[in-house]
């Protein structure tokens, strides 16, 4: 099979051998920064103390607050004149999170990005329309450099201006677009409303990322634009995009484990979760020179998808992002993520758009109650039908979250509608 | 003297020898496009027919309308798979003007851009804040790649958000900024209003372009930001920025004549103007592979600055852009540009902000009348003082535009003020 670089098809053994060598190397590099010099010394970590990959867990985690506390350059391992790029998170409060890159770091990033795009079939002959913001946000320049590495005709279209985007897409026979999922839906609807058949466009691939989205959203994008849509995962702390990417199997995103160590941990205990269970993704840069980051708590919830991918790559796959670790609920000692509940509910065709998770306390015991709206046509008089539905929802939720919730079926529009964002979780344990 | 590449300091002879070789070469390349194949054949032009540099004038000019008529790719000399970038003018009407680049074209563009920045002292140690839009506009990515070539720490800040720009500038000790003149004035005023002394910033160089502006604006930017501000000239049809750039003498912009042939012609007759006279800049790409453009009518008015530059470079200098060819007036067979008149008027400290150029016809002869507001403190009772001022303005205008205008001195606020943009030229010849 054609591949962008050899590491793309390394065996597990090759990956893990390289990971250990690179982990020792990056820890040595990290110790050249003021922050890690202190942090690693306190933890008794030095390259030679790392005997196996499992020893990565001896390294203390790094948080967003750590990065903020080191603003502007406390994690840099090299003098500023060696740095050639800076990106920063927009951030809503406090100091932004800042990432510095050397030329080597940029080259590696472009290579990883090119590998992602190549994996889903992007080639030199393609016309690549980059419909995302450039600037400090890593999404735009990240894919721009990846496409340049592949030799695509890159159109730095930037975001917005649907009419112009469509004109470019038609007139230059764009074959690949990078687009955020919410705009892809909007754009697809605009295309449909324009009366033009998506099949007349040359577009065949959409690269979608930067926003959590559901499988339903992906399918809708694929229908509206008549494309294959591939999920992209990244964060500026790990370069930007190019961290994990779906292959053509569309069965999870391969994390490039020659460049990163990925762990999934319980956000509460920081212990690894069992194979296939949901937890917080923790990432280590293995090759970054200017600003290595060790065991970064991404706050993103996902799980490793067990088993081998049919594509033949051995880099492990993560599931789409299932939410933020901050949203985690702990009920009877079990971690529950609202997104898990939502996914189960939405798999029932009878279920409407609104639901609510209510935490209750009864006889000193925490309980979880799920109130869910049923579509009008399914809210029938026959109680047996409704009781059967209630039972099926309860069982499926129990299978997923491992405790048995109480499920209330509510008629359509029966739940309070908040202005704007719905309040999905109500904690009534204190009252 | 340190230079970015040897061509920067070529002698006139070296420049002109290379120009002839490259002109023949680029004409041969251009003929591979459908548009020039036809156009050049009709004009009887082939590489071997070009015996001297003066023969460039035998080549028909290319206009923006030509580019539009060839939308989307009629000027391309190579199949699309050889193209790696597309930029487009935003344009207000009709099809956009589209430029395609091969990887070689991008490399050359980045080299020229790096040469410009290096010329004014930008070095690897600099922190470069790129305060301009990325995307289809060539300004952002143009300087981005130039800075990358030099190894600067590039901060792709993008436009707007003054508070964040200032925070970045302070926290990362930005030394070089790319900023459009109008925003530089706004930004400088915001800095002053914040109570911070510009001298406390590390900023030492501002690269300003993309908008015509006066010497007064440049001086104001230099004062407000405590920097040296260097003028940049470019247009997407000639790659983007990197066509002409000021050296530290700040006495006109060196056109990189190893990469372009620059001519200044009478917009009406297309004949070359006399040395030092104002006319329309006509440009030919000498090295572009994917989409050469021959004798492009930029519509920009400027003049060659006579004589050698004190910096020792032999690439000829153009003056700042003095307006658009479309604004040209023809009076008694003489071309007059409103911006010329404005520059003369504004050199008198007695002159206020408002003026008007009125075209009149008297006994079948065209006349030009210049009405100019005089500041309140200078509009004195003593008619001798005013008559003396009137005479001095008349003489200086005559020296510049070569015909003698009538000059009316008007008291402050004595001229009509239009909403928004002032109407500078009134043609009353028909009435
Ligand atoms: Zn796969
Ligand atoms: Zn000079």
From TrEMBL, chains A, B:
Q: Where is the AMP-dependent synthetase/ligase domain?
A: 89-283
Q: Which UniProt keywords apply?
A: Ligase, Nucleotide-binding, Phosphopantetheine, Phosphoprotein
* Pfam family membership, one: AMP-binding
Q: Where is the AMP-dependent ligase C-terminal domain?
A: 333-429
Q: Name one GO biological process term.
A: phenylacetate catabolic process
Name the domain of life this protein comes from.
Bacteria
Pathway(s) where this gene product acts: Aromatic compound metabolism; phenylacetate degradation
- Care to name a GO molecular-function term for this sequence? nucleotide binding
Q: What reaction(s) does this enzyme catalyze?
A: 2-phenylacetate + ATP + CoA = phenylacetyl-CoA + AMP + diphosphate
Family, similarity comment: Belongs to the phenylacetyl-CoA ligase family.
| Binding partners and assembly | Monomer.
Q: What is this protein called?
A: Phenylacetate-coenzyme A ligase
Please report the organism this UniProt entry assigns to the protein.
Desulfovibrio psychrotolerans
Q: What is the lineage of its organism?
A: Bacteria, Pseudomonadati, Thermodesulfobacteriota, Desulfovibrionia, Desulfovibrionales
């Amino acid at each position: 099979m054609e591949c962008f670089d050899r590491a793309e098809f390394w065996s597990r053994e090759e990956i893990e051998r390289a990971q250990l060598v690179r982990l020792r190397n990056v820890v040595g590099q990290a110790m050249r920064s003021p922050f890690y010099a202190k942090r690693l010394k306190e933890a008794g970590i030095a390259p030679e103390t790392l005997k196996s990959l499992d020893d990565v867990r001896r390294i203390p985690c790094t948080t967003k607050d750590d990065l903020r506390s080191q603003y502007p350059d406390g994690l840099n391992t090299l003098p500023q004149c060696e740095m050639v790029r800076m990106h920063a998170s927009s951030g809503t409060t406090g100091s932004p999170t800042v990432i510095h890159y050397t030329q080597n770091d940029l080259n590696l990033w472009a290579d990883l990005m090119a590998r992602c795009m190549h994996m889903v079939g992007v080639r030199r002959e393609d016309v690549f329309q980059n419909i995302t913001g450039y600037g400090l946000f890593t999404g735009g320049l990240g894919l721009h450099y990846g496409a340049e590495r592949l030799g695509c005709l890159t159109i730095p279209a930037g975001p917005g201006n649907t009419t112009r985007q469509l004109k470019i897409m038609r007139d230059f026979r764009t074959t690949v677009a990078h687009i955020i999922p919410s705009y892809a839906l909007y754009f697809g609807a605009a295309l449909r409303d324009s009366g033009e058949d998506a099949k007349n466009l040359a577009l065949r691939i959409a690269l979608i990322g930067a926003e959590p989205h559901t499988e339903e959203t992906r399918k809708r994008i694929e229908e509206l634009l008549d494309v294959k849509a591939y999920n992209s995962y990244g964060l500026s702390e790990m370069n930007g995009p190019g961290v994990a990417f779906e292959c053509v199997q569309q069965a999870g995103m391969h994390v490039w484990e020659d460049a990163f160590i990925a762990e999934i941990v319980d956000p509460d205990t920081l212990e690894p979760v069992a194979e296939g269970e949901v937890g917080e993704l923790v990432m280590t840069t293995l090759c970054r020179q200017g600003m290595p980051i060790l065991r970064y708590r991404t706050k993103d919830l996902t799980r490793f998808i067990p088993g081998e991918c049919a594509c033949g790559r051995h880099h492990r796959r993560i599931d789409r992002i299932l939410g933020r670790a901050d949203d985690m609920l702990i009920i009877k000692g079990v971690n529950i993520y609202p997104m898990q509940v939502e996914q189960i509910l939405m798999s029932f065709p009878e279920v409407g758009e609104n639901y609510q998770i209510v935490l209750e306390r009864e006889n000193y015991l925490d309980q979880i109650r799920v109130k869910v709206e049923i579509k009008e046509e399914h809210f029938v008089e026959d109680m047996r039908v409704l009781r059967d539905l209630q039972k099926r929802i309860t069982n499926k939720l129990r299978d997923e979250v491992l405790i048995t919730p109480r499920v209330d079926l509510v008629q359509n529009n029966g739940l309070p509608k908040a202005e704007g964002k719905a309040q999905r979780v109500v904690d009534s344990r204190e009252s």
